[in-house]
Amino acid sequence: MMKNLRWQFVIIFLTGLVIGILLLGEQKDVGSLAATPRPAQGGIYTEAVVGNLQRLNPLLDSKNQPDRDIDRLLFNGLVKFDSRGLPKADLAESWGISQDGTTYNFTLRKDLKWHDGQPVTADDVIFTVETMRQGTPTLSSDLQDFWKSVEVKGSGLNLQFRLKEAFSPFLDYVTFGILPKHLLNGLSGDAFVNSPFNLQPVGTGPFQFERLIVDNGNITGLVLRAYKDYHGQKPNLSQIVFLFYPDSIGALTAYKENRAQGISQLTPDVLPQALNYPNLALYSGRKPELTILLLNLKNTEVPFFQEKVVRKAIMQSLNRQWMIDNLLQGQAIIADGPIFPGTWAFYDGIKPVAFEPEIATRNLKEAGWVLAGETDTVRSKKDVFLKFKLSVPDIDRYKNLAGAIQRDLAAVGIQVDLEVMPFESLMSDRLNTRSYQAALVDLSMSKSPDPDPYPFWDQSQSTGGQNYSQWDQRVASEMVEQARITTDIDERMRLYRNFQLIFEDEIPAIPMFYPVYTWGADNTIRGVRMGPLYDSSDRFNNVTDWYLSLNPITVQVTPTP
């Protein structure tokens, strides 16, 4: 973006110089100039959180978003990731990877301290890994088994992880929040889950637990205060207060009544109301999800899914922007591939597929899919009709989208019959058994900054894995398999670029859109920046930059996702 702008900068500089000289001759009323707000120390930020508090423990928070949001401020991992999915130092000041990609060595920062003043050592990391090996109620069995396969040892400030084989997404796995061994050692099972620690946590993050807010025996909020010995940039804010509400309407009401300055989530049902508050800045970021129309490429009941011309015609016939604008209240971004935009692995040379039903109709006709009679509404070829069953979760969002898909495809002569069912049944009875024709679902990469597309698209995952489309493409599989074992990021970028080009050409499934997460904060809260998200707690990535300004500007701010 910058490489051809040098001459513009020269013009801007010269123009600014001339204007500056002219302004020297002008007398201005200094009092009429708005003062530029500067970061200030101190101040309290209060956020209305949608949901309830359960347990503040990074090994117990995977099923409760409010817990994860707060834990982001309390705990740290060895590394963290920026919005592009690139690793950065956190508790580890450095790390190295062996040439064969099986050994990872980490060195912790010096003088790390828990919130209670005790030193952080390699023993705390090893203890946390051992706890994951034992398992917790919210830890997946896959993650538990993964850590059982990794050898970890260390002492003092040094740690070593040894893998059985090279696995380049490994750094994803060391973002887990590290727990204090001196407070939790010896606890397991129910004792670990019900430990008082989970409501009075001790971590290493930029903020530390201060107290719960309790009303009539119910936890209605909590207070965090800035941690003076934090190893990173010290926070500008002195306190963050979280107040819990059952839904976005309650949270927005808290803002309206000046009980909160921020709202953790603005769902589509309250977004129009939120836009009416001129001092409420809205921040949107792409979620780590891909809404996709899966096609079962090996289902003999729908053999036409094997034809690329049919798959492309389906994609060209869907008015995805209309769906975003009218069904999703603008809270999504059109998707054209399986790798998330804004990440280091995304290839921006992919050509968007436009809404072109006329071209889709022409291509289907040329491929032999015709309307045989004057009254026919469904295309056919050799007694095979272009119709399929679309399975969707019994959730309004999906049902509304499925109705739009049905309407758009009917316009080009493709019949879609809807099968609405509980999400659990869709997974167990249709996707896992591969006994579906087409399905509208979200593929989630939540909490996984590494772009690894292997689980959803590799040949080996066609049976028993998550390659629900059963895409059987050897070259594409070789790309994602090789990218999984090389630690050279430039080589991984090349492999993923080639993978995306193959996906673009074959269209094994129909990418629809990337959903968007939106939250709001009063514009007295400055310094907020937000990029693409891997979890909604990522909105706190630069929380140490936030500060309170007493000079609000009445402007509606809606950053581009």
Automatic annotation (TrEMBL):
Family to which the UniProt record says this protein belongs: Belongs to the bacterial solute-binding protein 5 family.
Name under which the protein is recorded: Solute-binding protein family 5 domain-containing protein
Biological process per Gene Ontology, one example term: peptide transport
Pfam family, one: SBP_bac_5
Membrane topology recorded in Swiss-Prot or TrEMBL: Lipid-anchor
Sequence ranges assigned to domain Solute-binding protein family in this UniProt record: 88-460
Keyword Transport: yes
Cellular compartment(s): Cell membrane
A GO-annotated cellular component: ATP-binding cassette (ABC) transporter complex
PANTHER family: OLIGOPEPTIDE-BINDING PROTEIN APPA, PERIPLASMIC BINDING COMPONENT OF ABC TRANSPORTER
Keyword terms, alphabetized: Signal, Transport
Matching InterPro entries: Peptide/Ni-bd, SBP_5, SBP_5_CS, SBP_5_dom
GO terms of molecular function: peptide transmembrane transporter activity
